[in-house]
Known about the structure:
single chain, mainly alpha, Heme Oxygenase, Chain A, 11 helices
Amino acid sequence: MTTADDRQAFHARLLEIGKQRYHDKHPFHAMLHSGGCTTTQVRAWVINRYYYQSRIPMKDAAFMSRCDDPDLRRAWRSRIEDHDGDVEEGGGIRRWLRLAEAVGLDPTYVASTKGVLPSTRFAVDAYVSFVREKPLLEAVASSLTELFAPRIHSERIAGLLEHYAFADESALAYFRQRLAEAPRDVEFGLAFVLDRADTREKQDAAAAALAFKTDVLWSQLDALYSAYVSPGRIPPGGWDGTEGVVREPRAREAAE
Length: 256
């Protein structure tokens, strides 16, 4: 039997998965961050990404329902609070709907999840099921894409502010907030995985879980690219480019 990697080597193995597989390398993100997306493509991204954002607290609630340890539940529940927020503030989900409003979409339409691409829905639902069904170690390991998220959020903020008139601090509040939240989440999740993956079998399972999550993120962008970029073939049920549009994207103030 192959012995387990030491803690440092296993950490490096997880980081290499992100280096090779994280969705910051997808051509759709290159288009988005460089100003190459049309208004329709930006809106399609907002609509489909909302489905992922809205299911994250559901995924985390499913995880917590399986935790016997109250300390683990207490540590994890902040993730739900981050996305759902309280009644007044609304958390990350409501901040995402502010982005939807900024690009000219009706937030109620976006929140309905109508027009979400079938492949997006399938990938996200598979992630929720994974976390609900897999051992806790693998469920936590699948969240470790947060290791790589701060860089993509920083690039996105800079790129959107530079290239799109709708982008301002209100529209981009979701990404600003995640710059503070993601490092806290990943500190706990990474320590959990490194502490408990103490055999080669467990390390392989945790690494596979992280790779699975990168597949979930990558497949969402593949769906967007196929439907709205090339070949530009929107599948049945996908957003048609008009429904839920209420106005042109919000423009910057003239003083700017």
